[in-house]
Amino acid sequence: MSKISSIVFFVLALTFAGASASFAQTTKYKCMIQMTNYMGEGAYISISLVDSKGAYEKTLYVLGSDKKWYKTLKEWNKFYLKNQAGVSAITGASVTGGDRSVNVIEIENSKINTGYKLRFESAVEDKAYNVKDLEIPLTTETLSAKSEGTGYIRYVRFSAN
Questions:
Q1: At a CB cut-off of 8 Å and minimum separation 6, what does 87 contact?
Q2: What is the rounded average pLDDT of the residues 26-42?
Q3: 43 with 94: CB under 8 angstroms?
Q4: Could you give phi then psi for residue 151, rounded to 5 degrees?
Q5: Using an 8 Å Cβ cutoff, are 130 and 152 in contact?
Q6: If I label 25, which of 4, 60, 76, 114 is the partner at 20 to 30 A Cα–Cα?
Q7: Taking CA 114 as the corner, what is the angle to CA 118 and CA 110, rounded to the nearest 5 degrees?
Q8: pLDDT tens, residue by residue, 59-86
Q9: How is domain 25-160 classified at the architecture level of CATH?
Q10: DSSP element (H, E) containing 133
C-alpha cells in the first residue's frame, strides 16, 4: 500500500469511527402506566429523563397531545418552552382514572446505571398537579420492576420492546 493510500485509509477509518460513536445506542421499552381511580378529566403526563441533580435533559414521552394543556405540567413546560423540542412524534392520548396506557419510549443505554432518573409529572384539569408523581432511578433493576406512583399514577412497569 502506498503512503498516500495509507493516509487516506487512516483518515477514512477515523472518520467512520467518529461517526459511529456519535450515534447513541438506545433500547426501546414498553412503558405501562396504570392510573388510580380518580374522578375527572384525563391526566396529562410527561415522562422525562433528568440528571442526578434533577435537571431535565430530555422528554421521552407526553401523554396528552393538546399543547394548550402543556402549561399544567408546570416544571416540564418550562423545559419544553426553553428547548422547543418537537414532541409530536412522542405524544399520545391523555389517560383517565382507572385506565392504563402502554407506550414505547426510547432510552440511551449510556444513561442507565449512571445516576439519571425517569420523572413522571402529572396534571389533571381543575385538580392537583404532581411534579414528581413518580421519579425512579434509571437502573436495570427499576426497568424490570413495578414502581408505585404518588398521585394519579398507581404504578408503572417497563418491558424491553
A1: 59, 62, 80
A2: 96
A3: yes
A4: -125, -115
A5: yes
A6: 76
A7: 85
A8: 999 999 888 999 999 999 999 988 866 6
A9: Sandwich (2.60)
A10: strand 129-137
Phi then psi for residue 119, to 5 deg, are -110, 125
Rounded to two decimals, what is the model's pTM? 0.83
The three three-digit cell numbers of residue 161, written as one number: 420492546
Give the bridge partners for 56, in sequence order: 50
Q: What are phi and psi of 63, to 5 degrees?
A: -95, 115
53: its cell numbers: 441533580
Task: For the beta carbon of residue 75, count every other beta carbon within 10 angstroms.
Answer: 17
Cα–Cα distance measured from residue 129 to residue 127, given in angstroms and rounded to the nearest whole number: 7
Q: Per the structure block, which three cell numbers stand in for 61? A: 414521552
Residue 92 φ/ψ, nearest 5 degrees: -150, -175
CB-based burial, 50-66: b 16+ in 10 Å, e otherwise: beeeeebebbbbbbbee
Edge-to-edge, what's the strand order for the sheet holding 147-148? 100-108, 26-35, 153-160, 147-148
